[in-house]
Amino acid sequence: VHGGAARFDMDDGYVVGPPDAVFPAVAHFAEQVRMLGLDLQVNKCECYSPTGDLARHPLRPPAMPLGSVSSADGSQAFHGIPIAGKPVGSAGYVHEYLRLKAGQTMSKIETVTVKLRDLYAQSLYSVTSYCLAPIFQYWSQHNYPAEVLEHAHAVDQAILASIRMCVGREL
């Protein structure tokens, strides 16, 4: 790609550069992998630009969505994309992406806690300590502290609530 680059991480590919170079490069890549019997699922791709309006770009494939997440109340969309699982985009995108990941983590903690708390407190303690507690650490390690603090705190509170179920007292 002239004026850009492409990098791959497992089965995820990332193309960066000016839209006039990126979109034709993606189309060329799709043609090349098609010759190998593979299909690029353009509808599973996402595009994002902090400086331009890609929604109306004439070279963007119509099936390629803009990377975005909605606010908790659904009233606003924030733009960005996850790169290797790390949210990259507007401050609102990063916040909402991390809020969703924290919510998914807390839901897992709640589900496991409810299923194990009455009969398997010792197992719940081990599962919480070794399996559930580390789930959100990826985002804590790969985002700025100011971005992740609120969400990590909420996850930590869910972990503590689960541990309290095991030991039967405040920590």
Give your account of this protein's structure.
The protein is an alpha+beta fold and 171 residues long. The N and C termini lie far apart (56 Å). Strands 3-4-5 form a three-stranded antiparallel beta sheet, covered by helices on one side. A two-stranded antiparallel sheet has the order 1-2. The protein has five helices and five strands. Strand 3 and strand 4 form a beta hairpin. The relative contact order is 0.09.
Distance between the termini: 56 Å
Rounded to an integer in angstroms, the radius of gyration calculated over CA atoms is 21 Å
- How is the biggest beta sheet arranged? 3 strands, antiparallel
Output mean pLDDT.
92
Shape: elongated
Strand content: 5-15%
- Broad structural category: alpha+beta
Number of helices: 5
Query: How many beta-strand elements?
Result: 5
Strand line-up in the sheet with most strands: 3-4-5
Helix content: 40-55%
Question: Uncertain segments of ≥5 residues (pLDDT<50)?
Answer: none
Q: Order of SSEs, N→C?
A: EEHEEEHHHH
